[in-house]
């Protein structure tokens, strides 16, 4: 886990690292996913369509064994990202003040964590998805041990992955995928039978890159 071994992985260390980040003034000002130039042309085109602003929470759970990241398995009938592993969150609604409000609202709706249980410590740059969203990841420490109440209309279940596992590059899984007849490589994370891929995996890569200053 190059770049982090000498530092304690604590809530205070994370607060200090993300202290200089801010909620994007323009949630549609996106940074492309790492390695996107190697994607098939058809996938790259989907990143350049008009985007809708969205916010997701990267919920850092403070457990006795250390920090972990809460993720959800999305319901299979949903219109967008059905059956995928995702952070809780969603598109910004007209009544949301900003993408932070959207991320906190959707997190409460999807897994039952109230906004006042979330200590927002930072943000990542917005990232486009091939489904037409500009997603801003909000980094939040979840205070206490709130009871998870999963909304089964949107989420099948929630699970946690140790943060140490996601920060260790030895756990990166490179897989071959095919799109429009072209084969290309993507990064995934696998843990306890769960497969984290797609936009969520790339947001985790962005989180790690910023955290480890690489």
Number of domains: 1
Count of helical regions: 5
- For the record, what CATH class applies? Alpha Beta
State the share of residues found in helices, binned by percent. Answer: 10-25%
Mean pLDDT: 92
N- to C-terminal separation?
Answer: 12 Å
What class, by secondary structure content? alpha+beta
* Annotated CATH architecture: Alpha-Beta Complex
Low-confidence stretches: none
Q: Element order, helices and strands? A: HHEEEEHEEEEHEEEH
Radius of gyration: 16 Å
Look at the structure and name the CATH superfamily: Nucleoside Triphosphate Pyrophosphohydrolase
Approximately what portion of the residues adopt beta-strand conformation? Answer: 25-35%
Total strand segments: 11
- CATH topology descriptor: Nucleoside Triphosphate Pyrophosphohydrolase
Short description:
By secondary structure, the chain is α+β, with helices and mostly antiparallel strands. It has helices spanning 11-18, 41-46, 99-111, 163-167, 198-211, and strands at 52-63, 66-74, 85-86, 89-91, 118-123, 127-128, 133-142, 155-162, 172-179, 182-191, 194-196. Helices cover 21% and strands 34% of the residues.
Could you characterize the architecture of this molecule?
This protein has 214 residues and is of the alpha+beta class. It has one domain: Nucleoside Triphosphate Pyrophosphohydrolase (Alpha-Beta Complex). The chain is built from 5 helices and 11 strands. Strands 1, 2, 3, 4, 5, 6, 7 and 8 form an 8-stranded mixed β-sheet that branches. It has a 3-stranded antiparallel β-sheet with strand order 9-10-11. Strand 1 and strand 2 (66-74) form a beta hairpin. The protein is globular and about 50 Å long. The N and C termini lie close together (12 Å).
